[in-house]
Design brief:
Blueprint lengths: L4 H13 L10 H7 E2 L9 H8 L3 H11 L12 H17 L18 E22 L2 E8 L4 E3 L5 E9 L5 E2 L4 E2 L10 E5 L11 H7 L4 H15 L3 E5 L4 H6 L7 E5 L11 E4 L1 H8 L15 E28 L10 E7 L4 E3 L2 E3 L2 H20 L7 E7 L7 H8 L8 E7 L8 H11 L4 H6 L6 E2 L2 E3 L3 H13 L3 E3 L1 E3 L8 H6 L4 E4 L19 H19 L2
Helix pairs in contact: 4-10, 4-16, 5-10, 10-16, 14-16
Bound molecules: zinc ion (ZN).
The site of zinc ion has 8 residues, from α10.
Length: 554
């Protein structure tokens, strides 16, 4: 799971549903619709209540303790800990009576019948270089800049791109603010040089814009600018960084010496190549129009005549195989069983880096434990849901959502017969009362005090849900109380989401994100089993179960 989620959901709540008088503010009624009290509006069906009672803390805790144990070595992609974790998951499915896909590979011995192979490119000994060639009349000047000194490369396969360069200002297109840095520029087939961050002026300091263009994480900060450049037809982006670039390099920001990329492209690899360059390297490019990286901040976008840049990346490429683990429970209705609901959780985490181990208890042993217990409870239920349920345990989420991306391109159940995707990622940390109070205030919920009076932090969750799916939101409004939870529905499009629902969202499928809260040890070695709240994992697992049950029986 990537940190993108929290700021986005808060800002969407504020900007789209808040009380601000902006002309696209939604009516106040919408805000109230997004809050769900834990008070049941209807009796919980007995079969559902019985199944929910079967999801218990000790079993969840045992899965988490095992999957986050030191012997799992942080379940890093390409490591034996992740292999062991996937075998554990397959064995747990078999023990719970959740079969692998009917009719396919049933002759394969267990646990192999549960695996879906996911090919991944591994690149080691990465190298990168930017060459700037500037032609003035007869004279040609060439300068080269190397990775780790004057430039930093996004994760890319070995390749070489040579193209003329266009300076596209901040690389921002924001219609509402009347800004389009690409207006009148022809960047098709060109490399664009784009400044980091935001233009000056208070109108650019809105949280939504700061989160889009000024986020702390590199990938998040540049994602929108890359997408805008791609849409305009550019072939690569030179990201002009500020004076602190050298400090960042010295503090250890670098390209991983071992990269993983999806075998067929897709996902993050679809983004344009991004090379972040130092002010000195940028000056070599901008000198063609008598600018430098400082004066360019006040300059208009302009083509750079006579400047050609070559971006070259290299390394040793190798094909490696990782695996998704998949179980199926056939629907009970002869007709509706053709339709499936996919529930997924990623198995991988950050692994071991040198001597440092990243156990990933919350991220995402918590989601794995929940999914295993949901599958077990469904397999044990005397009455099966009408639609088919698919339990998918993904590989490679942390390095680029490889497993879920591969599924969307090679689904073992046709996407056109998939009703929704439910994602479990980081569900072991609850919200604090202070955070819930702030959310209520920020969204301007009418009678917010009444909602707050009925809420305890332990009984609150904020699932994300595809904004285009009112049906899914309605199912969540029923599932919350069934699981004893008050909810705030965070409705977004999910297409740049920070976990495995992203590629489903991009494929147009309705999705739900079950997520608890960020915590200080997020993506740190301190994300251990004793730090998370297994009762919270239980509540979220029950919420996901109730959602799946209601959806699969609709
Ligand atoms: Zn995660």
């Amino acid at each position: 799971m990537r940190r993108l989620v929290v700021p986005l959901c808060l800002f969407v709540a504020v900007s789209a549903a808040g009380p601000s008088p902006g002309k696209d503010a939604k009516p106040a009624l919408k805000v109230a619709d997004d809050f769900v009290s834990a008070e049941p509006r209807e009796p919980v069906p007995t079969s559902l209540a019985a199944a929910l009672a079967g999801i218990k803390v000790p079993a969840l805790g045992a899965h988490i303790a095992f999957l986050a144990a030191p012997s799992m070595e942080g379940r890093g992609l390409g490591g034996r800990g992740l292999e062991a974790a996937s075998e554990y998951v397959a064995a747990a499915l078999a023990l719970a009576g959740v079969p692998p896909r009917a009719g396919s590979d049933t002759k394969k011995p267990l646990p192999e019948a549960y695996f879906q192979s996911v090919p991944i490119r591994e690149i080691t000994a990465f190298t990168g270089e930017v060459t700037v060639e500037r032609r003035q009349g007869e004279q040609v000047r060439t300068r080269s800049f190397s990775s780790g000194v004057d430039c930093l490369f996004s994760e890319a396969p070995p390749q070489s791109i040579t193209a003329p360069v266009v300076f596209a200002g901040y690389g921002i297109r924001e219609e509402k603010l009347g800004r389009d840095d690409y207006r009148g520029l022809d960047v098709r087939g060109r490399i664009v040089a784009v400044l980091f961050g935001l233009p000056s002026g208070t109108e650019w300091q809105k949280p939504e814009l700061v989160s889009r263009y000024g986020a702390e994480k590199t990938r998040e900060r540049w994602a929108a600018k890359l997408e805008t450049a791609r849409a305009a037809g550019a072939v690569a982006v030179l990201g002009v960084e500020g004076e602190e670039f050298a400090t960042r390099l010295l503090q250890g920001e670098h390209v991983e010496p071992r990269l993983f990329l999806p075998f067929e492209g897709g996902g993050e690899a679809e983004a344009l190549p991004l090379v972040r360059v130092s002010p000195a390297a940028a000056d070599a490019v901008l000198a063609a129009v008598s600018l430098d990286s400082a004066s360019a901040r006040a300059a208009k976008p302009i083509a750079l005549p006579g400047v050609t840049v070559t971006i070259r990346t290299g390394g040793t490429e190798r094909l490696v195989t990782s695996r998704n683990v998949v179980g199926f429970i056939a629907g009970s209705d002869a007709k509706l069983r053709e339709e499936a609901l996919v529930i997924g959780a990623h198995m991988d985490h950050l692994g071991r880096v040198g001597d440092v181990m990243y156990p990933g208890a919350d991220d995402n042993a918590s989601g794995l434990a929940a999914l295993l217990e949901i599958a077990r409870a469904l397999a044990a239920a005397p009455e099966k849901p009408r639609r088919t349920l698919v339990f998918a345990f993904w590989t490679g989420e942390e390095k680029g959502k490889f497993g879920s991306g591969y599924w969307v391109r090679h689904p073992l159940w046709p996407l056109k017969h998939t009703v929704a995707y439910l994602n479990l990622d980081m569900i072991g940390h609850p919200w604090s009362m202070e955070e819930i109070r702030k959310l209520v205030a920020d969204t301007g919920l009418p009678n917010g005090e009444r909602f707050l009076a009925g809420v305890k932090p332990a009984d609150f969750a904020e699932p994300g849900v595809a904004e285009w799916s009112p049906a899914l939101a309605e199912v969540l409004r029923r599932a919350g109380p069934a699981a004893g939870l008050a909810l705030h529905l965070d409705r977004t499009d999910g297409k740049n989401g920070g976990s495995d629902y992203r590629d489903f969202a991009r494929a147009g499928l309705p999705w739900v994100r079950f997520f608890g809260n960020f915590f200080p040890a997020y993506h740190e070695p301190g994300d251990t089993a004793d730090q998370l709240d297994s009762a919270q994992v239980q509540r979220m697992a029950r919420l996901c179960f109730a959602t799946a049950w209601l959806l699969a029986n609709r």
